[in-house]
Amino acid sequence: MKNLIFTISFLSILCSCNTSSEDTEAEEIVDKAIEIAGGENYERARINFTFRNNSYRSTRKNGNFELERIIVDSLGTETRDVLSNSGLRRFRNNAETNVPDSLINAVSNSVNSVHYFVQLPFGLNAPAANKELIGRDTLNNEGYYEIKVTFDNDGGGEDHEDEYLYWINDDMYTVDYLAYNYEVNGGGVRFRKAVNPRVINGIRFVDYENYKYKDPKVKLQNLDSLFTAGELTLVSHIRTRNIEVELTD
Hints:
Blueprint: H1 24-37, E1 45-51, E2 54-61, E3 64-72, E4 78-84, E5 87-92, E6 95-97, H2 101-118, E7 129-139, E8 142-151, E9 164-169, E10 175-182, E11 188-200, E12 203-212, H3 223-228, E13 233-238, E14 241-247
Antiparallel strand pairs: 1-2, 1-14, 2-3, 3-4, 4-5, 5-6, 7-8, 8-9, 9-10, 10-11, 11-12, 12-13
């Protein structure tokens, strides 16, 4: 998985962005998708899960948040990175330790990226996100809104030039497919199909089939047709396991 796929600033994941008139339709679609997936439950949830053998925990309440990643190495040493409103803190076997300045952004964005994807579409209303309804299409006999998302330079992270496309079902308002392009390591594109949808204590989660295409310059809006035609190559399965959700008052 590309490092820092969504390297938006970690503070922006809790906020709603201001909409201009030209973005209103896309904003309304995204707002409805968030409401269907969990709505206000996101804002008062404690979520635990496992991703790629590491443990993650998020806590949100009254505008405050903590995003955690817990890694245990082969010697049993536990490293816990905690990203919050006040910044990044690291604990090694429960004793706080410094994170080198050169690693703060990378660690913060890496932690944020995993929580961001697991809790989609909640993070789509980040202040640095620009959303545009670029069309409607049919995929596997279902109708979809195509929502393009780009990020501002200011607050959009070091990969702010990357583009993303979400296919939101025009009946159920679920995010069933997404795609993105990237420039690092020679560039490329990815297309994801959401699978294994489940609702856990009022919040919807999915896993993904992760596909690539041979032409890194292909337009994102063409990937759904290429997927239907069997032209994409499956490269991995992205699974979130052991999900637990506790809602606070």
